[in-house]
Write the structure tokens for this entry.
Amino acid sequence: MLRKSSRVLKLSAAAVVLLLLLAVPLELRVSGSIQVLPYHNADVRAEIDGTIEEIYVDEGQRVSKGDLIARLSDREYRTDLEKTAAEIQQVRAKFDQLAAGPIPEEIDVARSAVSTAQDRFMFAQAKQFRMNQLFKQQLVSQNDFDAMRELEVTAQNELAEVNSKLRVLLKGSRPEEIQAVRADLTRLVAQQRYLEGQLERVDVFSPATGVVTTPSRQLSAMLRQTVANGGLIAKVHELDTVAVEAAISEKEIADVSIGQTVGIKTRAYPDRVFYGKVKAIAVTTQGSTAASSDSSGTAASTSASAGVDRAATAIRVTTEIDNSAGLLKPGMTGMAKIDCGEQRIFELVTRRLSRTFRVEFWSWW
């Protein structure tokens, strides 16, 4: 009788355990290692080549978008701009002169020069005529005759030169000359605008709101250093909210979905749990699960391939955590637990074994 009662009790206990396994639900939690990242990571970079003259921020300082971070030296650009402005003034005056053409006073002066040269030439001709008569009578020397002839030729050349200048003035400026000066003026104006734009870029501003994370020592060392266009000056991280990436095994990822609650523990604060929601699930995996293949390209479906370690293959799951207290720092590590909903105890116990049979052993036949 006692044996029968004992058997009944054992069967009843087994039935209760089985009922609990089949009926009682428990929360499924998927875990993975984490890394804390800044929510936004903005690089403060120089927009021109130059020498860093001032740094206005320090490590840990909070800045807003558009705040002044650094200033580059502008001496070289200002010198070039002043030189270009002077050249523009000179070329513009020449262009205006060519476009306007000769003034009446210039033409009157040229005509007066022609009249004077004509008088000189006629006077030289008359003297040369008389000198020629005297030379025939052998009353003057050959040297005197040659000297008078040279004066006549000089007067003739001067008359031809002033006549040519008068004709040029009356025709006005050549179109080709005006076009060349106009092109030179256009080039200088473009250079002036470029230099003005460079001067506007000597002040380097923050592209985002956040906290300066570049070390103070590194910022101080950058003073008087030459930086190229696009060179990094400082980093600004938005840390009021941080992104946390959890590496979840591919065997567990099917249970994870957007909006699920995530608990975070970091190694820096082991007694504190930070909570957030799943915001994104990566579309690619980390690690490698490449199966070996034979020469024909067919995957080897041997027991060895079934034993490939896929634990290293993970999928990044991203959550956002409120960090208004500033406790979480980029680069911190720890663990995450994702609440994936309730499942029966029996399913929780057998889920991994069931997946192994469904995937790994499936290839056996």
